[in-house]
Amino acid sequence: PVAAALPPDSPTLELESILQDLMGLAEGNHLPPSAPPPLTQKQFTKKKDEDGRSGQKDSDSSSCSSSGPASSNPKPSIQTQKTDSIDDLLGGLSSDLEKIGVRTTAKGHCAACNKCIVGKMITALGEVWHPEHFVCMVCKKELSTTGFFEREGRPYCDKDYHQLFSPRCAYCKGPILQNILTALDQTWHPEHFFCTHCGDLFGPDGFLEKDGKPYCCRDFYHLFAPKCSGCGESVRENYLTAANGTWHPECFVCADCLKPFSDGCFMELDGRPLCTIHFHSRQGTLCGGCGKPITGRCVSALDRKFHPEHFVCAFCLRQLSHGIFKEQNGKPYCTACFNKLFL
Predict the structure, then answer these.
(1) Exposure string (b/e) for 122-147, b if CB count within 10 Å is 16 or more?
(2) Which end of the chain is more exposed for a tag (fewer CB within 10 A), N or C?
(3) Is residue 252 part of a domain?
(4) Are residues 116 and 153 in the same domain?
């Protein structure tokens, strides 16, 4: 805001006193002034004939009229008349004062009414103003005793300037008077720029944007980031996609033994990643002899599967060919060994 400058008072104390009296007359003050202005006596001294006798007679009549009722009761026309403008009176007053030795200097013309300024004035915006004419362009409030804002050469009070021209907060839509924060191509009060979900102000981690709205990192990842198929937490940075899911690298392990896939190979069953051993174990395709997966031909016996070369007699360890064997306590035996051992 720019403070309006008030220069010193009028050139002489006498002129200031007369101005105050005239102001009282214009406002309808019917009480006689305490000290009549010099113009009252000066009206009679102007009339003089060329000879001295006539001048003497006029001076006598002047003294009589000043001591008569007119001195105690001013003329009704001066008492009751309310003028629309004091400027005409000031113009005549300035001329009369200069004739009796009181010099007055016009201070310029008011930028609002374009009339001559004789009394107090305001200097602002490179021009001079009557104090009562230097007002806000919107509310017409006088700005002579307060600060003001300027816009395109026009004065505004503090309230109206901010209401018309200050940037608006994207949250509360009110004018921003002091600190301003710019984000997401909008302006904000600093206290109104907070997480859309939790309402907390943003810390050193900053914010993330979704659909033109700001979110703290915690809420953004909780609401919008994909979830790890292993631990169920939000995936923020490094991740991998496998088995129809998104995973933290450390969470992508065998669902049974929880060991990572060191060779990068895994088998999928029901949407869960499995190592080769546990995949075949669930499928029932581990060899009952060596415990390794069966990928080729197999022998099905004793509710298990075997590599053909691993389906052997439990006693002599000879391969049981042609599918002929004897079973005892869940173990296969060839006919000869079975007869020796159990018959």
Answers:
(1) bebbeebbbbebbbbbeeeeebbeee
(2) C
(3) yes
(4) yes
The two three-digit tokens of residue 291, written as one number: 């415990």
Q: Do 96 and 151 lie in a common domain?
A: yes
Residue 254 CA to residue 242 CA, distance in Å, equals: 12
In contact, 303 and 309? CB cutoff 8 Å: no
pTM of the predicted model, to two decimals? 0.43
Positive/negative CA dihedral, 281, 287, 288, 290: negative
* Spatial distance between the Cα atoms of 157 and 150, rounded to a whole number of angstroms: 9
Three-state secondary-structure class, residue 330 = coil
Q: Is the dihedral of CA 74, 77, 80, 84 positive or negative?
A: negative
The position carrying tokens 């919008």 is: 224
How many DSSP H helices and E strands does the chain contain? 10, 17
Q: What share of the chain is helix, strand, coil (3-state, %, to 5)?
A: 30, 20, 50
Q: Are 208 and 215 in contact (CB under 8 A)?
A: yes
Q: How many CB atoms lie within 10 A of CB 284?
A: 12
Model confidence at 213, pLDDT cuts 50, 70, 90, reads very high
Number of structural domains (the chain) is 4
SS3 state at 188 = strand
C-alpha span between 3 and 9 (Å, rounded): 18
Q: Between 100 and 254, whose confidence is greater? A: 254
